[in-house]
Amino acid sequence: MSYSVAVVGATGSVGQEMLNILEELNFPVSEMHAIASRKSQGTEIAFGDKTLKCQDIERFDFSQVDIVLMSAGGDVSRAWSEKIGKAGPIVIDNSSAFRRDPDVPLIVPEVNPDAIKLARKKNIIANPNCSTAQLVVALKPLHDAARITRAVVSTYQSVSGAGKQGMDELWNQTKAIYGLGDATPKVFPKQIAFNAIPMIGAFRDDGYTDEEAKMWDETHKILDPSIKLTVTCVRVPVFVGHSEAVNLEFESPLDAEDAREILREAPGVLVVDKHEADGYVTPVDAAGEHAVYVSRIRNDPTVENGLNLWIVSDNLRKGAALNAVQIAQLLDEQGVIQPKSGYRSLTV
């Protein structure tokens, strides 16, 4: 079977990555539509060896497609996702707009594939926050083995999490500093070049940021609401790839070597953990890759049944575009969707 697919937000970095991954994974596409705002209408976008012309979201007939990958931000999703879902296709939404909605499944296929059964409630599936996605992929097999009771997470998030504007700001500030130019921040609240900013999102009344709240809300919904989780999210001067330092406490004993073996067998995880100068993964190593990498696995002797991990993944891939495409694959595999019509030639 082949499906008619639309990518909304096709001109953005995640939208383009969605198109790349659909092609890389040979997802069965009969027709592909690149959708964006009116100002981007006619913009040419590559899909494999084809060229798509962006269509205006206001004029596009969504009833003709089977799957919509939505990556245009929360405001656009709130305005359009439910309308699109009512027209028939299933929307896989990359924003935070519907993640907390009890009638919308929040899915990481390696972790909670059974939640796909709820997809038809609103014809919307939520994609989690980029930092949450890689975290729960690594935590799920360990939780199954020994039950995590508490987790302390510090993130080191790349500027691509703020989109192309964030990447441009790091690049421009770096050039400005070396050239004694203007490094005044415009996207981030403080200079990001050669710096670290312990704030992502907006502050809440409790002193945490909404980015931190997303991580615990989403981890509870996807994995287990009983896990006590505290998070500090930090923006760092890295272009692509989020890293996380994670401290875990378990209900049952779990030795570092046993954890290493469990993670080696876990779907979506690659363990790179040697006690050598280069025996771990960094964001540069993970960029462009599909896996969630786990390194620096070690016992924490300061607490009972404690473990430390270093988790790294490409936030534009597993943290966003790849997970969305994997959800589309799950819809196909589980028979949740059926093509509206037979095979049609690719629209360009």
Which helices and strands occur, and which strands form pairs?
Layout: E1 3-8, H1 13-24, E2 29-36, E3 44-47, E4 50-53, E5 55-56, E6 67-70, H2 74-87, E7 90-93, E8 124-126, H3 130-146, E9 148-157, H4 164-178, H5 210-222, E10 228-235, E11 242-250, H6 256-264, E12 269-271, H7 283-286, E13 292-300, E14 306-313, H8 317-333
Strand adjacency order, main sheet? 5-2-1-6-7-8
Q: What Rg, in angstroms, do the CA atoms define?
A: 20 Å
Can you tell me the residue ranges where pLDDT is under 50 for at least 5 consecutive residues? 342-348
Number of helices: 8
Structural class: alpha/beta
Q: How many angstroms does the end-to-end distance come to?
A: 20 Å
**What is the CATH fold-level name of the largest domain?**
Dihydrodipicolinate Reductase, domain 2
What is the CATH class designation of the largest domain? Alpha Beta
- Please state the overall shape, judged from the principal axes of the Cα atoms: globular
Beta-strand segment tally: 14
Task: Compose a concise summary of this entry.
This protein has 348 residues and is α/β, with parallel strands linked by helices.
